[in-house]
Amino acid sequence: MIKICSVYQKEKKIIINFLKDNHEFKLNDSQYNLLFKNKWTKKKQLGYIIKNDEKIIGFYGILFADKNYYLNNNNAIVNVHTWVVKKKFRHLSLNLINQMNKISGILVSHSTLISLKDIFIKLGWNVLDENFFLIPADVLSKNKLKYNFLYPK
Predict the structure, then answer these.
(1) What is the C-alpha to C-alpha distance for residues 78 and 92, in angstroms, rounded to an integer?
(2) Burial of 80 (0-12, 13-18, 19+ CB in 10 A)
(3) pTM recorded for the entire structure
């Protein structure tokens, strides 16, 4: 039986084991632990899993940030970081991403995969900026960057 449910910090080890076995990029345990160490929110949700007969067959990872400092509003930022589904069950992949419709906030994906961009657009997402660059100001210049990404004004 297929089941989709939220996954939380207490289930982190199970997700790490799934990713170690199924993700294209192989990370070590400390790298995975860093991925799931979220200091920008009090929320404990790591994302969503899809199960077949109680075995995990897919994971959609998200990171929350409670404060949106660069838009100066109270919308949470929800960053997509991982989307892995076992090959045999890829036809169920969109069921995971559709869970994002339940989340209130600004959804962000920093993926470099063009194929994912096309999927997100078909699901109603918008491209905010395809070419975002941060250029540090010259320390000797009279013109200083006044944009603070870390703290509200």
Answers:
(1) 22
(2) buried
(3) 0.74
